[in-house]
């Protein structure tokens, strides 16, 4: 390979071709792992170039201009004409254009779904096609919006369920990891001493490859602590690339009004049974989908009690599981955390009723919270 005379995309292509040619086995896994790290590094370099340029040209790779709103944001990702806009219109009060030709939707269209006291923003997006992550169609912009979502709905046409792999591939290529946790790795950079590897769980990657991959990323001195059981070369590369996001997903199989039960069984044999069959157009099973979206977003409800007043049980504050008092403050008002003096908590997260807590106290579902502001704060 004459890598030094090529542009970055050509280099990536050449390395990808080499991986495809290589049979992966014990003897070649080191070589292939290293090639994968090189590709990831080159892609990062390319992204940096692109971002540098868009500052001057007006941002063709930035996302669509749409503001996040509500308690959480869900994006609809699917190929053209699978029924994303029909679904948005069914779930929310929005009126996104629906038509039988491809690429009807040309930008991000928001709608709000009110469900069990929560407000869930749903974003309809243009369809993506194979190659989206490298810039085909509106791919880059769609994927850029998806990065900031709380949940990804992968929408499939009942007659093309196998295209699920295309969606997953394009998301993965753009650094969006579905239903995975970030690998448990800690890297402490040092100035001398080379690379010391501390593996605390059985992993699927040799110490030699770990060191080589680190070097591809320009790290020559560090202490790396790996607690992730079964760590793979891909996961290590994800951790080093640093631009990955980890999001939950749901698979939706649309247009089931066109088939019978037997057909859906066949689909299960192809893509497993981890999907929600619906018809957005004929309104079949849409309520079950709403409930699943709500569950998957993993909300908790916090009942606010004004100082010396009555608890508001009618309209809980809806926030993501794991939220702290600080998160609640930020949700109520931009300046609230600054005006905060202390909180009082009743419920499962409190050691005793009315426990005094600080901003970093983690709340649980159905806690009651009073926020006491600093004297002088409005
Ligand atoms: N039979 C049937 N047709 C549907 C269903 N949902 C959508 N359609 C039809 O499928 C076609 C495409 O629907 P859209 O909602 O525009 O699809 P889209 O995914 O938003 O398409 P793009 O914006 O081009 O990506 C339209 O003719 C819809 O009427 C469904 O549940 N059943
Ligand atoms: Mg559409």
What spatial form do the alpha-carbon principal axes imply? globular
Domain count, please report it: 3
**What pattern of helices and strands is seen along the backbone?**
HHEHEEHEHEEEHEHEEHEHEEHHEEE
The small-molecule ligands in this entry are: guanosine-5'-triphosphate, magnesium ion
Unreliable sequence segments: 53-60
- How many β-strands, per DSSP? 16
Task: Please provide a written account of the structure.
This protein has helices spanning 8-21, 29-57, 84-91, 139-147, 164-173, 207-216, 233-241, 261-271, 286-297, 325-332, 336-339; strands spanning 72-78, 109-115, 118-124, 151-157, 176-178, 185-189, 195-199, 222-226, 245-247, 249-254, 276-277, 299-304, 317-320, 340-346, 355-357, 367-373. The protein contains eleven helices and 16 strands. The radius of gyration is 24 Å and the shape is globular. It folds into three domains: 3-60 and 183-241, no CATH class; 72-180 and 245-297, Rossmann fold; 299-373, Beta-grasp domain (Ubiquitin-like (UB roll), Roll), CATH 3.10.20.30. Helix content is 33%, strand content 22%. Strand 2 (109-115) and strand 3 form a beta hairpin. It is α/β, with parallel strands linked by helices. The protein has a six-stranded mixed β-sheet with strand order 2-3-1-4-10-11, sandwiched between helices. Strands 13-12-16-14-15 form a five-stranded mixed β-sheet. Strands 6-8-7 form a three-stranded mixed β-sheet, covered by helices on one side. Helix 2 runs parallel beside helix 6 (207-216), helix 2 packs parallel to helix 7 (233-241) and helix 6 (207-216) runs parallel beside helix 7 (233-241). Bound molecules: guanosine-5'-triphosphate and magnesium ion.
């Amino acid at each position: 390979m004459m890598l030094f005379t090529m542009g970055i995309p050509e280099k990536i292509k050449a390395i990808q071709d080499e991986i495809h040619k290589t049979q992966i086995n014990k003897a070649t896994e080191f070589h292939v792992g290293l090639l994968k790290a090189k590709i990831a590094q080159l892609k990062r370099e390319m992204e940096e170039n692109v971002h540098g340029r868009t500052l001057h040209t007006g941002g063709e790779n930035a996302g669509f201009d749409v503001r996040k709103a509500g308690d959480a944001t869900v994006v609809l990702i699917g190929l053209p004409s699978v029924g994303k806009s029909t679904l948005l219109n069914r779930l929310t009060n929005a009126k996104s254009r629906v038509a039988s030709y491809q690429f009807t939707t040309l930008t991000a269209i928001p709608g709000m779904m009110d469900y069990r006291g929560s407000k869930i923003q749903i974003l309809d997006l243009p369809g993506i096609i194979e190659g989206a992550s490298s810039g085909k169609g509106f791919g880059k912009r769609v994927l850029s919006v998806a990065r900031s979502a709380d949940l990804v709905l992968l929408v499939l046409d009942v007659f093309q369920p196998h295209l699920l792999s295309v969606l997953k591939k394009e998301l993965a290529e753009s650094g969006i990891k579905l239903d995975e946790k970030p690998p448990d790795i800690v890297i402490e950079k040092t100035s001398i001493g080379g690379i010391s590897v501390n593996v605390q769980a059985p992993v699927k990657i040799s110490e030699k490859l770990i060191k080589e991959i680190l070097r591809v990323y320009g790290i020559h001195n560090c202490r790396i602590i790996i607690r992730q059981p079964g760590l793979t070369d891909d996961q290590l590369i994800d951790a080093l690339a640093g631009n990955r996001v980890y999001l939950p997903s749901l698979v939706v199989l649309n247009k089931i009004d066109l088939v019978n039960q037997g057909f859906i069984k066949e689909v299960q044999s192809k893509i497993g049974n981890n999907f929600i069959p619906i018809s957005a157009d004929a309104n079949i099973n849409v309520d079950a989908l709403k409930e699943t979206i709500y569950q998957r977003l993993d909300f908790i409800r916090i009942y606010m009690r004004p100082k010396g007043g009555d608890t508001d049980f009618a309209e809980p504050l809806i926030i993501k599981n794991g939220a702290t008092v600080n998160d609640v403050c930020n949700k109520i008002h931009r300046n609230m955390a600054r005006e905060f003096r202390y909180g009082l908590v009743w419920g499962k997260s409190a050691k005793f009723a009315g426990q005094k807590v600080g901003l970093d106290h983690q709340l649980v579902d159905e806690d009651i919270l009073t926020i006491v502001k600093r004297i002088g704060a409005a």
